[in-house]
């Protein structure tokens, strides 16, 4: 029960901090797109999501350290899937861009990064299936 | 790697959750070891052996293809 409680506790802390970070990101993005601040202020707003992300990262690492060895392996294998998929996405986008100019309104960094957690969760789902 | 974990656990009338609690791991980990989908680390294997009062090789043994 202790291991499970620790696992759930770590998971909820990570989910809460991730939610805060994502909320901050979308607020910052909304403010930047509204174009109502000076350039210096806009730069500050653009950097604000770093703070909740740092908290999320620390809680994520603390949560991973609390996991048992199988769960840690699952996360490692999920990363081993997500990392090459990220490389593939960036490589393909780079090559496609040589053929068709990609619109920055659809394919800028602010759009592409959102694929990375999707790949990670895909990796988690695929890996978990192996051990269940 | 094969193991006798499920048999040993059943002999003591422990659930997977009971065993997981005693080993300080999750129930999924116990299940994955019992179903031989996951081989435990050496420290965890020693912990399991100690819990059941047996040697590691009395619980874990290589599968026939090794």
Order of helices and strands of chain A: HHHHHHH
Count of alpha and pi helical runs of chain B: 5
Derived structural class of chain B: mainly alpha
| Largest sheet, strands/sense/barrel of chain B | 2 strands, antiparallel
CATH superfamily membership of chain B = lambda repressor-like DNA-binding domains
> What distance separates the N and C termini of chain A?
19 Å
Helical content of chain B stands at 55-70%
Distance between the termini of chain B: 9 Å
Oligomer: heterodimer
Strand content of chain A: under 5%
Shape of chain A: flat
What pattern of helices and strands is seen along the backbone of chain B? Answer: EHHHHHE
From the alpha carbons, calculate the radius of gyration of chain A and give it in angstroms: 18 Å
Portion in strands of chain B? 5-15%
Uncertain stretches of chain A: none
Protein model, in words:
Chain A is an all-alpha fold. Chain A has 2 domains: 1-67; 68-132. Helix content of chain A is 87%, strand content 0%. Chain A contains 7 helices and no strands. Chain A has helices at 2-34, 39-47, 50-66, 69-99, 104-107, 109-112, 115-131. In chain A, helix 1 (2-34) packs antiparallel against helix 3 (50-66). The longest helix of chain A has 33 residues, at 2-34. Chain A is flat and about 50 Å long. The two termini of chain A are 19 Å apart. The mean pLDDT of chain A is 88. By secondary structure, chain B is mainly α. Chain B has one domain (2-54): 434 Repressor (Amino-terminal Domain), CATH 1.10.260. Chain B has 5 helices and 2 strands, in the order E-H-H-H-H-H-E. Chain B has a two-stranded antiparallel sheet with strand order 1-2. In chain B, helix 2 (16-23) packs across helix 3 (27-34). In chain B, 27% of the residues are buried. The model of chain B has no long low-confidence stretch (mean pLDDT 94). The chains are: A mainly alpha (132), B mainly alpha (66). At the A-B interface, helix 1 and helix 4 of A face helix 2 and helix 3 of B.
